[in-house]
Design brief:
A hairpin with a 2-residue loop joins strand 4 (54-55) and strand 5. By secondary structure, the chain is an alpha/beta fold. It has three domains: 1-117, Rossmann fold, CATH 3.40.50.2300; 138-274, P-loop containing nucleotide triphosphate hydrolases (Rossmann fold, 3-Layer(aba) Sandwich), CATH 3.40.50.300; 365-404, Arc Repressor Mutant, subunit A (Orthogonal Bundle). The chain has helices at 11-23, 34-43, 60-70, 85-94, 106-116, 138-151, 173-182, 202-212, 228-240, 262-268, 285-299, 309-317, 323-337, 365-379, 384-391, 395-404; strands spanning 2-7, 28-31, 46-52, 54-55, 58-59, 75-80, 98-101, 163-166, 190-194, 217-221, 246-251, 271-274, 306-307, 342-343. It has a five-stranded parallel beta sheet, sandwiched between helices. The chain has a five-stranded parallel beta sheet with strand order 9-10-11-8-12, sandwiched between helices. Keywords: ATP-binding, Nucleotide-binding, Phosphoprotein, Transcription, Transcription regulation, Two-component regulatory system.
């Protein structure tokens, strides 16, 4: 078997892809139509094929099926147009290993080639910095670029400006915060504070956290839960610190001056990162799933997991309302359910799709109460005061209920 065959009807693009791959050590050839691709495939079977879905009058899916019939060991990557999720699903069901959304950068194509042709299962499983942001979508590329820019930002010799990371629950905000911290030249450590868990001893907790994070990073998770008194305490602590830490905060929605002291708000949100939902990063679903499965397999001393075409298609068909957190949960379940090295479609059971409404039992009062609290918090972006108002109870009552149910926000 040779290395890579690129099937692309735009000759200039095909040549560019081949040249880029060869500069990175992957021998490659290209074909501009289905007939020449078949001939080159028969002459020397490649290890990997990068196949454009639209080949003038030729059908890329039909060519994919033909190649799979000839040799199903070949790893085929389908290139689709932006938003062609249905085509990607069809390609997965036909046996494609992965897909790329055009226009795909040459670096993304080379990264995918490197990943699929690696023999070492452990390679790349301990990323640091922006390497923690897994994916090949334009959104993932933009996130990595933005993190790099913010990591090196310095204003008039001051410490790195505060950064607010905003995104829906489960989207990976804390992971991006860690990537940002690891990408900076700061000498100190990152100290995490979950503002949801701060109580009447908030000032003491913040004092300890600011001291531990000096010359490093103070990560304020769920910062919208920070009480006004605690906000004032934090401002005083930062002003009095000889080596005040850089600030990173996470929230499910952008902050408002109605809920935050202006001085702290302006300090926190100098820069910000908007993290999209996983449903807006379809091209990242398979890379994230494979990364998580490989990490779990390595931890268990198992061989690299394989994916059936049905499993890959099922991952792409689901809209992942729980975002990356739900995808990780699903892969953990799949790894537990599999009986051999291959993850099958029957092993893909997303959390929010595991309940059949027709057979779902009547919920208990406790479940109804917990569900109402979660829904109110989600609709208010995690703001306890507004959620309590929506539920018709006091803020203290809601806090008591959250503690009772051990409810924590991402």
């Amino acid at each position: 078997m040779s290395d890579i065959l690129v099937v692309e009807d735009e000759t200039v693009l095909a040549r560019s892809i081949v040249a880029f791959l060869e500069r990175r050590g992957f021998p490659a050839r290209f074909a501009v139509d289905a007939s020449s691709a078949r001939a080159m495939f028969e002459e020397q079977i490649p290890r990997m094929v990068i196949l454009d879905y639209k080949l003038n009058t030729d059908d890329g899916l039909e060519l994919l099926r033909w190649m799979q019939q000839r040799d199903d060991r070949v790893q085929i990557v389908m290139m689709t147009g932006h938003g062609d999720v249905s085509v990607a699903v069809q390609a997965m069901k036909a046996g494609a290993r992965d897909f790329l959304t055009k226009p795909a950068s040459l670096a993304s194509i080379a990264a995918l080639a490197s990943d699929l042709m690696l023999d070492d299962m452990g390679a790349g499983l301990d990323p640091v910095g922006v390497g923690r942001i897994i994916g090949r979508s334009s959104a993932a590329n933009a996130l990595r670029k933005h993190v790099k820019q913010l990591a090196t930002a310095v204003l008039s010799g001051e410490p790195r400006p505060g950064v607010l990371i905003v995104g829906p629950p489960g989207s990976g905000k804390e992971l991006i915060a860690t990537a940002l911290h690891e990408s900076t030249p700061l000498s100190g450590t990152q100290v995490r504070v979950d503002c949801t868990l701060l109580d009447e001893n908030a000032t003491a907790s913040l004092t300890e956290a600011v001291r531990a994070a000096e010359s490093g990073t103070l990560l304020l998770c769920n910062v919208c839960q920070l009480e006004r008194v605690a906000q004032a305490s934090l401002l005083r602590l930062l002003d009095r610190s000889a080596a005040a830490p850089a600030l990173i905060a996470t929230a499910n929605a952008h902050l408002s001056s109605n809920d935050f002291l202006p001085d702290l708000l302006f300090r926190l949100q100098v820069g910000w990162i908007d993290v999209p939902a996983l449903s807006e990063r379809t091209a990242d679903i398979l890379p994230i799933a494979d990364f998580v499965a490989r990490q779990l397999a390595r931890a268990a001393g198992q061989s690299r997991p394989r994916w059936s075409s049905g499993a890959r298609a099922k991952l792409l068909e689901y809209d992942w309302p729980g975002n990356v957190a739900e995808l990780v949960n699903c892969i953990q379940r799949a790894m537990l359910m599999r009986e051999a090295d291959t993850i099958e479609a029957t092993h893909i059971r997303p959390f929010s799709a595991t309940i059949d409404p027709a057979t779902d039992p009547v919920p208990t009062l406790r479940e109804l109460e917990l569900g109402a609290i979660r829904k109110a918090l989600a609709q208010t972006g995690g703001n306890v005061s507004r959620a309590a108002e929506m539920l018709g109870i006091t803020r203290d009552t809601l806090r008591y209920r959250m503690e009772k149910f051990e409810l924590q926000r991402d």
